[in-house]
Amino acid sequence: MESVRFKKSYLIMCLGITFGHSNAVYAFNAETDSAQEENVEVITVKGVRGSIVRSLNNKYLNSNVSDSISSEDLGKFPDMNLSESLQRIPGVTINRNQNGEGSQINVRGLGPQFTRVEINGMSAPGGGSAGRLGTNGGGRGFSFELLPSELFSNATVTKSSDAGQSEGGLAGVVTLETPKPFQHQGLKFSSSLQGNYNDKTNDIDPRAFVTLSNNIDDKFGYAVAVAHSKGDFRTDGAENGVWRPLSVIDPSVDADSALGSALVANGTRLYSFIEERDNTAATLALQYSPSQSLEFTFNSIYAELSNHKAAHRNDIPLEHLGVQALRDSLVIENGVIVAGSFDNVQHRVGPRITDIDDKFFQSSLSAKWMPNDNWEITPYIGISNREAKRKQSLLSFKLNNETGANVPGILSYNVRGDYVDFNSTLTDFSSNPEDFSLNVLIFRPSVDDAEEVTSKVDFTRYFDHEYLSRVDFGFRYSIQEKNVVEQDYRIGRDAGWNPNLGPSLKDSMIMLDYDVDGADPSFTNKMFSVDPNGYQDVWFVNGEVSPTGQSLIPGTSVQNRASSAALNSYNVEEKILNAYVKVDFDWDDITANVGVRYVKTDQDIDGFTTALGGIDAISFASDYTELLPSASLRYELSPELLVRAAYSKTLTRPNLPDLAPSERIFAPDVNSATGQRGNPDLKPFTSDNLDLSIEWYFGDEALLAANVFRKDLDGLIDTTTFTANRDFVTQLSPEIFNGDVFFTQPSNGASASIKGFELSYQQPFSFAPEGVLQNFGFLANYTKTSSDADFGIENDVRSTGLPGLSPTSFNASLYYDDGTLDAKISYAWRERYLAQTSDDFGEPRFIDDYGQLDLSANYSVNENLQIQLQVLNLADENIIAKTFVHKTGYLPYGVTDLNRRVLLGVRYSF
Question: How confident is the model at residue 717 (pLDDT cuts 50, 70, 90)?
């Protein structure tokens, strides 16, 4: 339950609507009104309907095209994950991690790096886990797994920019707000305790939250919150990977023949993703108002996420020359080998493990000062730090004969819809670990440290003028630094390695449960893998896993690959200066603003090269400036009917690894060399954006809205090639290479356009006959998006669908709220999208159409005590992946069997 204050005269002026529900009203944020102490009325807002009403009010009053999600009460956000809530907003879809949780968001078809996320007025740092295996992608996109939703009171997605907003969100800006004490009257307390049940692990994990807020006569207030959760997750998958021509893996087949060009499933494998997670987070807010004209706010947030991720993989890949197709067994349909057997196939077992300790801290101090009725001055200073320590390992064993060579075994597979069933004559991956010996043990620990210091001051000059209402201007200066340091070492086999003299997989093995819904019944329900906590003492002297450690096993050694690690280490410092001015006009039923933002960015970028045989530091400096104009118009055809139009130019900076000037060269001999390098001269992506919308608030808590949009993007990063002369030691040291190296590197240049429309509808069933039906309501939205890109490559899959873009998505929710019981059942669906441009062997990977049904309910035992229930993935859906081959179409890639999660608990508040 929440007390929301608003100025009644202002509300009536803005909305012209009288509401009959005592627990469902439009709530106006008193902090935005300079005369908040006058004519104040207290209205009680609670439950799911209260959250909907506040979100609708935010949308109505915002001058930009925006949507928001509000907490139902202090510490009671609609979903346990912020991204899961944000996907209910038109034009927003989410990327799910290997557990099926929402991790990052896409706005209007553009991926996470194109959306700026702000927490309490300061940028939320990227650098969270990326990809299915939890590796560091180095992107700017924020991962929502880090912060529990209970810590937040409001999340707003602004899709049309204005000059007053910080740059960086080409697609949009997400602003997250933690509770402030002046938002509530008096003392408030809330706590919850839940058990989180996972139907894959059959474990019940705790999730707890407590918060206390106290507003002392609007003079001083404090709000503190702490959240803690633990979780065990498991999802299982069966994959076949990408499809390649048979002649690529079996050179005995004529590449120009129909058989040689027939596509074969490349990487049959079983996966079991296991994660153990421990998450603690806390917020602190202090507010002090010594007078009606001056207010200070201090915000701080801390989060720590520790998790152990293991992607256990048993695979039989058709990757290496020497594989032989048993031609009489092959069944070919439309140029695809849908069934067949293959001899001399490698068998491998082992997990890719990522241990992460991710810590985030942010603090800010701001003031709001009105020296007189005409001026408002808002200074702000903030600092943040995010440090992620990762220990990444690949523990790989393979099936060998007595000399260590591959055992010639037969793999057979059969395509069955979205599934590719397979088996081997040598193993079912559950009964013969003694036949698997060392392939390689690889270790890549790293430290990823991101820091930011931001200072800014905003000025507002109010005018009592017929048309001119206010002028906003301000300045911001920030220093952002990202430092990544990686190590790379491994235990590898030396000359004379004999698998019979060393330990087998059996000496450091674990047995795992395995189950994929819909898979072939012949698949095993168990699979063996390497014990992530039990291999150290078997392979390392004194169990010391380090680049200076020693191997226990004859014929193997620890190899320190310092040069490779250096090429993945870098430092980027960005100094960003902003200045902006925005002018607001107000006449009759029209409000409008025009403005421009000036952005200057100076970058210092450090990396390494190993071209001369050693590890040499290299540094670059670059800078660029941008002018970002914007304009918007809001026209009230009536208090219930609004039309909006907006134009803006926005930017997003390149991902940091693309800027790193590292240069790696592969020179097998003195006659040829190829290389890869970063590009510190990359410039930001920019976009010109247009929005036009109409919103009809046709009743109490009711809305029908439509929005059309277009984005014209420039400077998208693609891969280009060039040649440069180099003089260095080859792999066949001490031979010297001197000549041209054929390099690839990222560069700006590609352009794209995105266009689409969004439809929204919501309404309570107030039209129903008196009774229970009037407690129901419905919300739905639909988004249609298309893109057209020019990457200069024929048949590029990105040309008709940028990564992360679903052509169609929709959300629908049915809710019930009678004051004692509030419940909501929601369904979110998105169409197939490009998940990864370059996956196995450079081929694309898509995620097929996916819809998820979720349920949340709260029952009030009394005024203070509630029973809470959430069920995520109620219908127990699976994720289907596809790959795409030109002239053939979409082919199966893999199936991931997700878990269903049930949260049941209690909440106590006063």
Answer: confident
Q: Which amino acid is at 162?
A: D
The phi, psi pair for 374, rounded to 5°, reads -100, -20
Residue 307, strand partner residues: 277, 356
CA distance linking residue 151 with residue 35, whole number of Å: 29
Q: Is 119 exposed, middle or buried (0-12, 13-18, 19+ CB in 10 A)?
A: buried
Comparing 727 with 462, the larger pLDDT belongs to: 462
Please determine, for residue 272, whether its predicted confidence score (pLDDT) is greater than 90: yes
First to last CA, the chain: 8
Task: Give every CB contact of residue 764 below 8 A, 6+ residues apart in sequence.
Answer: 24, 49, 700, 701, 702, 774, 776, 777
Which amino acid does the sequence have at 94?
A: I
DSSP state of 406: B
Contact 566, 592 (CB under 8 A): no
Print the SS3 string covering 60-81: HHCCCCEEEEECCECCECCCCC
> How many Å apart are CA 905 and CA 689, to the nearest integer?
45
- 455-492 residue pLDDT tens: 999 999 999 988 999 999 999 999 999 999 999 999 98
Query: Of all helices (H) and strands (E), which one includes residue 667?
Result: strand 663-669
- State the virtual CA torsion across 55, 61, 65, 66 in degrees, nearest 10: -20
Going through 400-467 in order, the beta strands assigned E by DSSP cover 409-416, 419-424, 436-462
Strands 526-530 and 509-513 come out as antiparallel
Output the CA–CA distances (angstroms, integers) from residue 52 to 21, 42, 370, 551, 818, in the order listed.
13, 18, 32, 61, 14
Cβ atoms of 744 and 720 within 8 Å: the answer is yes
Q: Which two tokens stand for residue 382?
A: 């903030």
CATH class of 570-756: mainly beta
- Cβ contacts of 190 within 8 Å, gap of 6 or more: 73, 74, 75, 76, 209, 210, 211, 907, 908, 909
* Cβ-contact 245, 261 below 8 angstroms: yes
Helix then strand count (H, E) for the chain reads: 8, 49
Q: What's the CATH code, domain 82-177?
A: 2.170.130.10
- Kindly state the tokens that stand for 760: 């929204």
Residue in this structure with the two tokens 């069955």, named with its chain if needed? 416
Beta bridge partners of 106: 93
Q: How far apart are CA 362 and CA 453, in angstroms?
A: 10
Burial string for 809-825 (b: 16+ CB within 10 Å, else e) reads: bbbbbebbbeeeebbbb
Give the mean pLDDT of 511-518: 92
Selection from 513, 494, 632 nearest residue 553 by Cα: 494
What's the token pair of residue 735?
Answer: 């031979």
Q: Which amino acid is at 557?
A: S
Residue 118's DSSP bridge partners are: 123, 175
Do 513 and 526 contact (CB within 8 A), yes or no?
yes
Q: What predicted TM-score, i.e. pTM, was given to this entire model?
A: 0.87
Q: Is 9 exposed, middle or buried (0-12, 13-18, 19+ CB in 10 A)?
A: exposed
**Tokens of residue 908, six digits:** 């106590």
Cα(492)–Cα(522) distance, integer angstroms: 35
β partners of residue 7: 40
Task: With a cut of 60, say whether residue 43 has pLDDT above it.
Answer: no
Structure tokens at 859: 């029952």
Of the pLDDT bands very low, low, confident and very high (cuts 50, 70, 90), residue 70 is confident
User: Is there a contact between 356 and 390 (Cβ–Cβ < 8 Å)?
Assistant: yes
β-pairing, 154-158 vs 66-70, is antiparallel
- CA 728/CA 738 separation, integer angstroms: 7
Question: Structural domain boundaries of the chain?
Answer: 1-75, 82-177, 570-756, 765-910
Tokens 């999660």 correspond to 901
> Could you give the 3-state DSSP secondary structure of residue 641?
strand
- Compute how many other C-beta atoms are within 10 angstroms of the C-beta atom of residue 841: 13
pLDDT in tens, 164-178: 999 999 999 999 999
Tokens of 524: 């095993």
Which stretch of DSSP H or E encloses residue 763? strand 736-764
